[in-house]
Amino acid sequence: MPERTDSLTERMSAAAGLASLVGEARATWLSRAERGLADRADEDLPDGVDGASRTPRWRAFEDAFPTFYQFTNRPRG
Amino acid sequence: MSREHRTSEDGYVQWRGMRGIATVPGYVIMQPTTLCNLDCAYCYLPHRDANRKMPVAVAQAVARTVNAWAADARRFSVVWHAGEPLAAGRDHLSALMAPFHGVEHHVQTNATLIDDAWCEFFATRDVHVGVSIDGDAARTALRVDRGGRPAYQKIRKGIDALRRHGIPFAALCVVSAPQPGLGTELYAFFRELGCHALGVNVEEQEGVNVRSNTFDDAAVRGFWAELTAAWRADPVIELREIEWALWYAANALDGTADDLLPARIDPIPTIGMDGSVVLLSPELAGFRDGHYGDFASGNVLSTPLDVLLDRVADRPPGWIAEYLRGVEACRDTCAYFGFCGGAHAANRYFERGRFDTTETDHCRNSKIRLIEGVLDYARAH
């Protein structure tokens, strides 16, 4: 698959429709936050671990799938 | 130039995360019993017909380390899994949970044993519940009891109990044959089921499951694209894979994708019923290989868990050192590394027989085709 050598980010930037899809996802995450379902994953992080801001986002970790390893794991040490 | 455009000499992306093994995990997995009352066709677990229960002394040994970690963390999870945890029985599971303090308990269950008493158990201990179900009765047909009878009705009965008690639950769905129409069907099913979150696992060839997981590229991409469409139309369920892909895309578009992977690899300690500790991939627990041995890094009954993890991080032994070389090979050769973090140890071993290989069928089905399916959908809409 020659495209492996291309930057995935570049292909994402060029993907028509992705920005609007991401925008809708952000709106969903914001709506969840407003309904009290905010992602608590950021709160799990020691300060500065991954630079994540405390913004509404996909709820990644303990609430639902603690064993979803490698996508979302947050080792502390 | 954004960080993800930093390249090595051969032009591949170089990501910062996943370098070496962390000494403090994000969670631990506990095997309260080897037993499962079901005999699902795709299950990876060995010894699941034997009821070997974890002694309380093992839980006490793990808790001595975990309680200290939990005291320093905002949240720390203990996941009861790797066998049917409810098959251990309420009294024994309660005794195993008792030594832990300041942690969140999780169970990943087939739901067939859940009744009012279990619901009260979950509620009083604030246990997070994940259930395993693959869709309607036909889609869940590979989940059978030890007599080969379909487990679907018992699973639904358990889920009905959860709903009756108002206990939120996540669902894990195994997809054994990605095909057109399935994504739409599954999303509608789980919407009706009432789960707050859904994880979708394309069947993996690992453990004692030797069924092929080589699937048609277009079928798998189409499946993920269809799930993307279903979620976009009605984003009520937290849809794990699709939302993670979109979160990655959001960060990629913002130039912050290199911040997503953890700096170091989570050791993911899985504590077997006998106290043995297998790191990185729970699926390796209970297996023995002529070359690699039993994959265990020690036993909590003889070595404190934190000491054991310090040793492994300092001097990764045998197969773990080989796995770390494999992670670096993924970093050097795969454009999806920033999204994936490297092929999982168990998938490398059970598909390829080694840990220093790179792309697996699991990578293709659940990482590469996931991203590409989301992109396919985005380009078409």
The CATH architecture name of chain B reads Alpha-Beta Barrel
Give me the count of strands of chain A. Answer: 0
β-strand amount of chain B: 5-15%
Q: Structural class per helix/strand content of chain B?
A: alpha/beta
CATH level-four homologous superfamily name of chain B: Aldolase class I
Overall tally of domains of chain B: 1
SSE series of chain A:
HHH
Major sheet of chain A: size, sense and barrel closure?
Answer: none
Q: Identify the biggest protein-protein contact and residues per side.
A: A-B, 50 and 76 residues
Topology record:
The complex is a heterodimer of chains A (77) and B (381).
Chain A: H1 8-14, H2 18-34, H3 41-44
Chain B: E1 27-30, H1 56-72, E2 77-80, H2 90-97, E3 104-109, H3 116-125, E4 128-132, H4 152-164, E5 169-175, H5 182-193, E6 197-202, H6 217-233, E7 238-239, H7 240-254, E8 270-271, E9 276-278, E10 296-299, H8 305-314, H9 318-333, H10 337-340, H11 345-352, H12 361-380
Parallel strand pairs in B: 1-2, 1-8, 2-3, 3-4, 4-5, 5-6, 6-7
Antiparallel strand pairs in B: 8-9, 9-10
Helix pairs in contact in B: 1-2, 5-6, 6-12, 7-12
List keywords for this structure.
A: 77 residues, mainly alpha, 3 helices, B: 381 residues, 12 helices, 10 strands, globular, disordered N terminus
Q: How does this structure look, described?
A:
The complex is a heterodimer of chains A (77) and B (381). Chain A has 77 residues and is mainly alpha-helical. Helix content of chain A is 36%, strand content 0%. Chain A is elongated and about 35 Å long. With 381 residues, chain B is α/β, with parallel strands linked by helices. Chain B has one domain: Alpha-Beta Barrel (TIM Barrel). In chain B, 39% of the residues lie in helices and 11% in strands. Chain B has twelve helices and ten strands. The interface between A and B is large, with 50 and 76 residues.
